[in-house]
């Protein structure tokens, strides 16, 4: 059996007049869709818990939000935002919410994700590989061991060397860095090897 937390009652009561009916409506729909839901206050706003965090409904000065802990998975990419989201945007009245049937479908989907133990997905943004500075490429071509090690490095280790050499403004600095880089690379050392434990 679900629970209604008196702290959520107090939270709703202290909000602006426009927010109270929105929050009360969301709360009623969540409890109807998920009778076992438990309420909590996290980060200063109401959270709905069902086998872990399910959804939240913070209120702000001029709008409310209703989002899911696993928003991206629940909304099938309907929302371009990261984190705890849903396809609802800024809510300024109950009319801004989808129908009770639609909301219930989203809530059921969120429940299923929690029941199956599916984690939030964090989108990794891969950084593009930097081009090897010509001076480094020429030096690596002359040193077979260094070239093999460099090609075997992870993209981040290659990037560290490429950035370090490319950011040198003076020719003398760049030449010195290329010489040092080839020595370290030949020894199989990443650029920041001194700081590794």
What do these coordinates show?
The protein has 197 residues and is an alpha+beta fold. The protein has two domains: 6-115, Aspartate Aminotransferase, domain 1; 134-195, no CATH class. The chain has helices at 6-13, 19-33, 71-74, 100-115, 134-142, 144-152, 155-166, 171-186; strands at 38-42, 45-49, 53-56, 67-68. A four-stranded antiparallel β-sheet has the order 1-2-3-4. A hairpin with a 2-residue loop joins strand 1 and strand 2. Helix 2 (19-33) crosses helix 4 (100-115), helix 5 (134-142) packs across helix 8 and helix 7 packs antiparallel against helix 8. The model is unreliable at 77-83 (pLDDT under 50).
Note the topology.
Layout: H1 6-13, H2 19-33, E1 38-42, E2 45-49, E3 53-56, E4 67-68, H3 71-74, H4 100-115, H5 134-142, H6 144-152, H7 155-166, H8 171-186
Antiparallel strand pairs: 1-2, 2-3, 3-4
Fill in the keyword field for this structure.
197 residues, alpha+beta, Aspartate Aminotransferase, domain 1, 4-stranded antiparallel sheet, 45% helix
Summarize the structure.
The protein has 197 residues and is of the alpha+beta class.
Query: How would you classify the helix and strand content by structural class?
Result: alpha+beta
Backbone CA Rg: 27 Å
Characterize the biggest β-sheet: 4 strands, antiparallel
Q: How much helicity do the residues have?
A: 40-55%
- Strand percentage: 5-15%
The CATH topology of the largest domain corresponds to: Aspartate Aminotransferase, domain 1
Q: Which parts are unreliable, with pLDDT below 50 for 5 consecutive residues or more? A: 77-83
**Side-by-side strand order of the widest sheet:** 1-2-3-4
């Amino acid at each position: 059996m679900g629970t209604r937390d008196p702290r959520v009652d107090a939270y709703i009561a202290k909000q602006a007049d426009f927010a109270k009916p929105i929050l009360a409506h969301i709360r009623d729909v969540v409890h109807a869709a998920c009778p076992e839901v438990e309420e909590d206050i996290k980060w200063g706003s109401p959270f709905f818990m069902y086998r872990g965090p399910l959804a939240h409904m913070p209120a702000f000065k001029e709008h409310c939000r209703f989002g899911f802990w696993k928003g991206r998975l629940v909304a099938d990419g309907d929302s371009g935002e990261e984190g705890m989201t849903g396809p609802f945007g800024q809510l300024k009245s109950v009319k801004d919410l989808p129908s009770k049937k639609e909301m219930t479908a989203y809530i059921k989907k969120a429940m299923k994700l929690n029941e199956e133990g599916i984690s939030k997905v964090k989108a990794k943004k891969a950084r593009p590989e930097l081009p090897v500075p010509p001076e480094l490429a020429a030096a690596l071509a002359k040193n077979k061991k260094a070239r093999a090690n460099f090609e075997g490095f992870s993209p981040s280790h290659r990037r560290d060397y490429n950035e370090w050499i490319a950011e040198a403004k003076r020719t003398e600095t760049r030449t010195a860095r290329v010489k040092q880089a080839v020595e370290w690379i030949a020894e199989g050392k990443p650029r920041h090897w001194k700081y590794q434990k």
